[in-house]
Design brief:
heterotrimer, A mainly alpha (88), B mainly alpha (212), C mainly alpha (542), A: 88 residues, mainly alpha, 2 domains, 81% helix, B: 212 residues, Four Helix Bundle (Hemerythrin (Met), subunit A)
Chain lengths: 88, 212, 542
């Protein structure tokens, strides 16, 4: 296998491991931490997919900013709406 | 040797055109992210407002089908990435083959989804049709409704993704798109597919793993 | 003097002469032709929405209001709002002047994705037809804001059809924004650095960021609304734990930035009008450019000011109030900078500058009332009154429409190759200014005195101000017809404009009027800053 192929398969293995972790954590004794763990795992998976599979690591700054800007905007939507929902 | 890449109006250089294609696709994916993101934010708010009801609803969902589907989709992304790599190296059959494998997994995903919806129907979880189970009362029913809307919208995007991959694979196999000069077409299709995968990566814990 | 020819030589070799069949227009990918296709469409929508306004003002001439039933009145203001917002204001400047000018201003032959541009026009028209069908088949009574649970559970009317039309039109917006962003990044001519871009382009870039990030949220909101209405999935139904306020959060997350979609392009126009009208470099170029981006960015943080009395928590209300004050700052920066640009400029009061100055004055008044509304304590009392109606009309009509008309009066000679009579341009600017203030200033007073909005009747003591407002509206209607008349007249009878009738700076003025299909005979190479006054090249003979 070429080096690139190895990288891709390695990322796939990491993604599957993360899937196992997130499903496993659901059955573990983590209580209130579970949503946080699951969210963190989801971000890791998404990050790997964006960075390697979607070639973001090969792109220049502008393309990276454009590809990831939505994260900021969704945080704004979530954050300010939560500010209302949690304080009502 | 003729250059197979036709420069479209108004481009002056190949690099400029492919850069524009990439930027355009990332901007488009940003819009899709906001679309699904809005739904995910709404769901998150409901989980915050009704934690027990959401957990109860989540426990009715088919966790193992969902988990299997996640694995299937992640694997299909691997095949797409391998397909893009093959396209960059100029391998016509390899590219089409990899895309075909990804498509097969995508079809498997949708088949499992269909079976899952069948089970949901039998359990009385579906809105509008079937005999509603007592779980559908109140906020739990609301959470289940959001689950159906989200997964149905995702399935629609999967179907579009399958069409995109299929068209790309056909174009590549026929030679209508030359590799590696026009690999950008495969890259674009790949980006869309990976994004649909990322959406599922978030939908899965948001709904299935809300069981508490 | 000989009458100008039916089609000048310039027109024949321009983009206008490149094919005369309907097919050549309906299947064009030329951004200039698409701009004109949009212009025709939005003018029709403006007229339809104006009919809604006419019905409203007729109804409100008398306190007991005998023109419309209460239900009919609800449908009239909903028609007015829906069509004005989504089918006129949002596409008006970007899809006409943005489409036409951005490639010219940056030295490109077309937008990044010309076929996508044509597709977005078709999508817009289809969305418009669906919405119009619904509105004419009886319409909707929810107001353009579609608040739940009224819209999901209790409203009579064609809610589903209208929101479908709006969602379709939304895709057109998204594709336009996408096209503009990629165009500005990738298609600038050699030497056209970000720091040399006309401020019109900066404004449209900022607008495009909003179009791309906010509109999908609207699409999702309307899909959820539709799902609830059609399939009874109770997403916002309070009886089963749903939260109507979440509808408002999602709706305004789009709709507040949407108002910046409507105003930022007009601000970009004003930057061009003021610099050309004063023949002077803009004061504080980077401040104005960054202010556009700041308005787009901070504009996403303030949506809760529409929800101060909705049941939103006072804590969140306080946050949104503070942020809403902050968003006024970049707008104010622009107003200061335009004013400073005029100072000691070689001011010539041609129609474009008159419209630009109208914008600055009316936008400032509207903006000041916006600051008042941003304050929780004041908004508590004037929310849902005519004070709010006056505020947003000062911005949208006094501001955005003035910007649109100013753009029309400035670039008409470039688009058509014909000049219109300047005297009539000045008359219409004055008449619009007069009619506008007569219509909308009384509404500030009415709102402050307590008259609620969206009511078909009112207490008799408010009649005098209402009559003034309706009288102003009739002046406005005449004033809007005027440009339609002399612009149409100029198409056959106007004198040939020449490449640069205003002696203005900018790449679009270096190419013939009307421009050739490919915009430039040779790709321009830029080595001068924007607003390069005084122009060093010889003025073209007129």
């Amino acid at each position: 296998m070429s080096r690139q192929t190895l990288t891709l398969v390695g990322v796939w293995a990491a993604l599957m491991a993360l899937l196992a972790i997130t499903v496993g954590a659901t059955f573990g004794p983590f209580g209130a931490w579970k949503p946080a763990i699951n969210l963190a795992v989801a971000f890791c998976k998404a990050g790997l997919i964006f960075w390697v599979f979607m070639h973001l690591r090969e792109q220049r700054g502008v393309a990276r900013v454009i590809a990831l800007a939505f994260l900021l905007w969704l945080s704004i939507l979530m954050g300010l709406t939560l500010a209302d929902v949690l304080s009502r | 040797m003729s250059d197979y890449v036709t420069l479209r109006e108004p481009y002056a250089a190949r690099r400029q055109q492919s850069d524009a294609d990439f930027l355009g696709m990332y901007v488009f994916l940003a819009t899709e992210a906001m679309l699904f993101g809005a739904l995910m934010c709404l769901t998150f708010m409901y989980r915050a407002e009704h934690p027990q009801a959401s957990a109860l609803a989540a426990r009715q969902m088919q966790l193992w089908i969902g988990a299997a589907n996640t694995g299937i989709l992640l694997t299909s992304s691997l095949f797409v990435a391998l397909g893009v790599q093959a396209a960059r190296e100029g391998g016509r059959r390899m590219t089409a083959g990899m895309l075909g494998a990804a498509m097969a997994l995508g079809v498997l995903f949708l088949a499992l989804k269909g079976a899952e919806y069948g089970l949901d129907y039998k359990d009385g979880l579906m809105p509008v049709v079937g005999h509603p189970s007592p779980v559908r009362e109140g906020p739990a029913g609301l959470f289940i409704d959001l689950y159906f809307i989200a997964t149905a919208l995702h399935a629609l995007h999967m179907a579009i993704g399958l069409a995109v991959l299929g068209t790309t694979a056909a174009l590549v196999l026929r030679g209508a798109k030359q590799l590696p000069q026009q690999a950008v077409v495969v890259e674009m299709s790949g980006l869309y597919w990976h994004f649909v995968d990322v959406v599922w990566v978030f939908l899965f814990p948001l709904f299935y793993l809300a069981r508490g | 003097m000989n009458a100008p020819p039916l089609q000048t030589r310039e027109e024949r070799v321009s983009y206008l002469g490149a094919g005369h069949s309907l097919r050549s227009w309906l299947l064009t990918t030329d951004h200039k032709r698409i701009a004109i296709l949009y212009l025709v469409a939005i003018t029709i929508f403006f007229a339809i929405a104006a009919v809604g306004a006419a019905l409203i003002r007729l109804q409100l001439m008398s306190p007991a209001g005998e023109i419309l039933s209460h239900e009919g009145y609800n449908r009239a203001f909903t028609l007015h709002g829906v069509v004005m917002v989504w089918f006129f204001l949002i596409p008006s400047i970007p899809n006409t002047f943005g489409n036409f000018l951005i490639p010219l201003m940056i030295g490109a032959k077309d937008l990044a994705f010309p076929r996508l541009n044509l597709a977005s026009w078709y999508i817009f028209v289809i969305g418009g037809i669906v919405t119009l069908y619904a509105l004419i088949a009886g319409g909707v009574d929810t107001g353009w804001t579609f608040y739940t649970p009224l819209s999901t559970m209790f409203a009579n009317g064609h809610v589903l059809a209208v929101i479908t039309g709006i969602t379709i039109a939304g895709f057109s917006s998204i594709l336009t924004g996408l096209n503009f962003i990629v165009t500005v990044h990738k298609l600038r001519a050699p030497g056209m650095t970000w720091g040399r871009l006309p401020l019109f382009v900066w404004s449209h870039y900022a607008t495009s960021v909003i179009l791309v990030l906010a509109t999908p949220v609207l699409a999702m909101t309307l899909v959820l609304l539709g799902a609830e209405r059609a399939l009874h999935l109770g997403v916002f139904d309070p009886t089963i734990g749903g939260d109507p306020l979440l509808f408002q959060h999602l709706f305004w997350f789009y709709s507040h930035p949407a108002v910046y979609i409507m105003i930022l392009p007009a601000m970009g126009v004003v930057s061009e009008l003021v610099t050309a009208g004063a023949r002077k470099r803009v004061f504080g170029y980077w401040f104005v450019a960054c202010a556009s981006l700041a308005i787009a960015g901070v504009g996403f943080l303030v949506w809760g000011h529409h929800m101060f009395v909705s049941g939103q928590s006072p804590y969140a209300g306080a946050i949104f109030s503070f942020l809403s004050l902050a968003v006024a700052v970049p707008s104010a920066v622009k107003v200061y900078n335009w004013t400073a640009t005029l100072y000691k400029g070689e001011v010539v009061l041609d129609p474009p500058l008159l419209y630009g100055m109208a914008f600055v004055g009316l936008f400032t008044i509207g903006g000041l009332s916006g600051l008042m509304l941003a304050l929780l304590a004041i908004d508590e009392h004037v929310h849902d009154t005519y004070f709010v109606v006056a505020h947003f009309h000062y911005i949208m009509v006094g501001g955005a429409v003035s910007g649109f008309l100013g753009a029309a009066h400035f670039w008409w000679p470039k688009i058509t190759g014909r000049m219109y009579p300047l005297v009539w341009g000045r008359i219409s600017a004055g008449l619009i200014f007069l009619g506008f203030n007569l219509t909308f200033f009384p509404q500030y007073l009415l709102g402050y005195l307590g008259m609620p909005r969206r009511y078909p009747t009112y207490p008799p003591q408010f009649q005098a101000l209402n009559v003034l407002s309706s009288a102003g509206a009739s002046v406005l209607f005449v004033a809007y017809v005027l440009p339609l008349a002399y612009f149409t007249w100029s198409l056959r009878n106007g004198r040939a404009a020449g490449p640069n009738p205003w002696d203005a700076s900018g790449l679009e003025w270096t190419t013939p009027s009307p421009p050739p299909k490919h915009n430039f005979d040779e790709t321009p190479v830029v080595d001068r800053p924007a607003y390069d006054y005084p122009l060093t090249r010889a003025a073209p003979d007129e």
